[in-house]
Amino acid sequence: MSIRPVLQIPASVLVSPAAAVGRVDDAARALAQDLLDTMAASPACVGLAAPQIGVGLRAFAVDVTGHRKARSCHGAFVLFDPKVVVEGPAEVAREGCMSVPDLTGDVARATQLTVSGIGPDGEPCSLRVDAFEARAVLHELDHLDGLVFLDRVAGPHALFPRKVYR
């Protein structure tokens, strides 16, 4: 459908909990496509939540295809109204975010989880993810709760300037 601008902090939609989608209709399917299109047009992006494109609804897209840290990989997917069903042990690793473009940080996240929600087809969906894909899902879920990774770092000692690779 369209590539949308990605908002950066302190945009109010990024720090507010998102509303439930409820029913998947044409507008929700268009949002799903916008998330996928915007993510695909953003270099090195592995996930994008609706609040990041200015939409205060509980929806996100993830695609870790080809990422060197990925073990599980479900390809590009969108979930509406996602919830963590099962969560495994946590591990600390570095994260970045398009909405916080100048920093990265060390964040503890579960390395295994099961997430359920509604797919763009309107059907219930459940995914078991691990490693980097689990981190990406949890990062996007935080956006739906009005959090960014900065809310999860242990303190200033765990923040770093973003490196730019050429």
Description of the molecule:
With 166 residues, the chain is α+β, with helices and mostly antiparallel strands. It has a single domain, classed as Peptide Deformylase (Alpha-Beta Complex). The chain is built from two helices and eight strands, in the order H-E-E-E-E-E-E-E-H-E. Strands 1-2-3-6-7 form a five-stranded antiparallel beta sheet. A three-stranded antiparallel beta sheet has the order 4-5-8. The chain is globular. The model has no long low-confidence stretch (mean pLDDT 95).
Characterize the biggest β-sheet.
5 strands, antiparallel
Domain unit count: 1
Which residues sit in consecutive blocks of at least 5 with pLDDT less than 50?
none
What structural class do the secondary elements suggest?
alpha+beta
Question: Alpha-carbon distance between the termini?
Answer: 30 Å
Shape: globular
| Average predicted confidence as pLDDT | 95
Question: What's the short story on this structure?
Answer:
The chain is of the alpha+beta class and 166 residues long. It contains two helices and eight strands, in the order αβββββββαβ.
Helix and strand layout, with pairings?
Blueprint: H1 26-40, E1 47-49, E2 59-62, E3 77-87, E4 90-97, E5 100-110, E6 112-118, E7 124-130, H2 131-144, E8 159-161
Antiparallel strand pairs: 1-2, 2-3, 3-6, 4-5, 5-8, 6-7
